[in-house]
Amino acid sequence: MWLAPELDWYPHFYCDNLTVKPKRLSIQNLASQSASAAISIPGYQFSRLLGAGASGQVYLAEFAGQPRAVKIFQINQGDPLQRRVEQEIDILSRLDHPGICAFLDSGQTDQGQLYLAMQYIEGT
To answer: Is 92 in contact with 63 (CB distance < 8 Å)?
Structure first.
């Protein structure tokens, strides 16, 4: 259930008797961040924030003259979720289908965060 009238709160997710409360993120604050100042990956030029969720942010970036959607995961080193994200990246890297965005690259930012770069498809 989404209780906040503004768009700056994420809803609480309920699963049986467990309540998971994602970290409060302000969409306005994320959108005003300078993408190029916050993230550094060799060869990538970040231009703007495309979206944000509980596990990270997605930025529009350019690599070798081509646009890419780059997800920066908000997972600390040694976090149990790190292994799951690495497995998902591995699976995604082996998928090839015209109905999904193409996997292009993955690794760690200069700040040590995991990232995933995919084909950027402009949409609404």
So the answer is: no
